[in-house]
Amino acid sequence: MDANEGQQRTVLITGSDGRIGQILIDAWRESGRYKWVGLARKEGPYADIVADITDLDAVEASMQGVDAVVHLAATAPVESPWPIVRDSNLIGTYNVYEAARRAGVEHVVFASSNHAVGTFEMQHAPDLYDLDDDRVIDHTVVIQPDSLYGVSKAYGEAMGRYYVDHHGLKVACLRIGSMTGDDTPYAPGNLWKPEHDDDPAILKQRRRYRATWLSNRDGVHLIECALETPKRWFLCYG
Asked: Which residues are catalytic?
């Protein structure tokens, strides 16, 4: 854990060794804006605590002395099978909210996903990716998950609202777009090989990455805004 003198808030980051966790920690190392505690399943440079979010007692113990939680830990592949989605994204997410309640940590930032409404995208792609497309898919649309992963993210949002209304937590749900390790809308690199230039499916994926890309700077700023907002509940895209 890197602590910067003068900082007043300590944030637990679950899934701290994942792509977004590493981006966030690297940014805070440079800016000194927050102290943090990284929680991951394996030892490594981004893990201060090694624990599995399916272990409620371990998650609760990790929250001692922190002021807020950024919950990033999840199984990420959209095609993940139900047992993995259930354990990591449902049980694990419940454990984070419940552990926060038990530990008296009032503020949770939940990393949701546009896959919670991904069927809209499936219905309207690829035209939806054009800058001049006038469709608006915002926080008010009906939930339409495109996968069990999307279902799990909608569940996390609903669970957050429950803990706001019935347990007094402050929760921000962020439908985070495509953040990449190399901070470019042209990742992953294999999509841009010349031999794919005439492949309609690859061309569609290229358009999607450009449309959903979220720069590392903006992604970090989004999470920081979620940590600083006075609102007790909100849901937004990034």
From this structure: 149
Q: Please say whether the beta carbons of 72 and 21 come within 8 A.
A: yes
73-126 pLDDT, tens digit per residue, is: 999 889 999 999 999 999 999 999 999 999 999 999 999 999 998 887 777 777
pLDDT of residue 4: 42
- The structural architecture, per CATH, of the domain 10-113+147-179+215-237 is 3-Layer(aba) Sandwich (3.40)
Domain locations in the chain? 10-113+147-179+215-237
